[in-house]
Amino acid sequence: MSTNGGLVILTEMLPQLPPSEKKIATYIIEHPNEAILLTAMELGKRSSTSGAAVIRLCKSLKLKGFQDLKLRIAGDLQKTTNDGFRDIEPNESLLAVIDKMTNNSIQTIRETAELLDIEELEKAVETIRHARRIHLVGVGASSIIAQDAQQKFLRINKTAFAFADMHLAATQVANAEPDDVVIGISFSGETIEVANVLELAKQRNVKTISLTKYGKHRIADQADIKLYTSATKEPTFRSGATSSRIAQLQVIDILFMSVASRQYDETVKHLNATKEAVQFLTGNGGK
Predict the structure, then answer these.
(1) Is the distance from CB of 187 to CB of 145 less than 8 angstroms?
(2) Which of 96, 168, 105, 112 is nearest to 136 (CA)?
(3) Which of 169, 184, 267, 272 has the most other CB atoms within 10 Å of its CB?
(4) 115-274 maps to which CATH number?
(5) 6-77 fold
């Protein structure tokens, strides 16, 4: 597990928490230095709740316990810089746009790394590695991520399909087998078509992986393995659409590299073969 990201998790889960747990989360966000020194019972008193509510909060956050949460928050407090997300303003200079978008991307990548659960990632890597076929499902911007993943896995001889057409996805998944895997990609975690395709996969006893922003969402609820990206903060100019894409690509890259690393010699052989094929096709490698 990561040793930071506690404040990110609390902030992103805050709207979904029940009242007593929301009180505790708010107290921790506002007084992180104090919170890491308290017992569960003491934190319950400070936030006008109870020690039991603190333990329930940790369960809601999908953490191993209060100690896990305190360790993550302590890690957050050791960070020396945190510029936060900055939105684009009217008539920004090009230099300002470069600076803000670069900062937002770096922030998103860091937060996503903090939110990745190593145990879930391990399950996802092994499932993909041994899958007969990989079915990638996403709508809109997330369909571009699915296409990127398909291109990567095809290069190392994995049978992968990317679907933007949900009718076609449903048709393919209806014929899927238990040693296939369906990966549902949705930043919001609520895209109904993707959730329904994952549900269809479960009915077929096909393994499922979700890739959504952190929190409790319809798509994650349908998945056997849950992977999360950071939720971005900028609402005005929808620069979150760019940050969310970068976060999703980051997780796909991590999955791909992890699978590739575990079958290193085979991966190198397939990458060389596909590179030579493309060179032949373009006339750069033909004789």
Answers:
(1) no
(2) 168
(3) 184
(4) 3.40.50.10490
(5) Arc Repressor Mutant, subunit A (1.10.10)
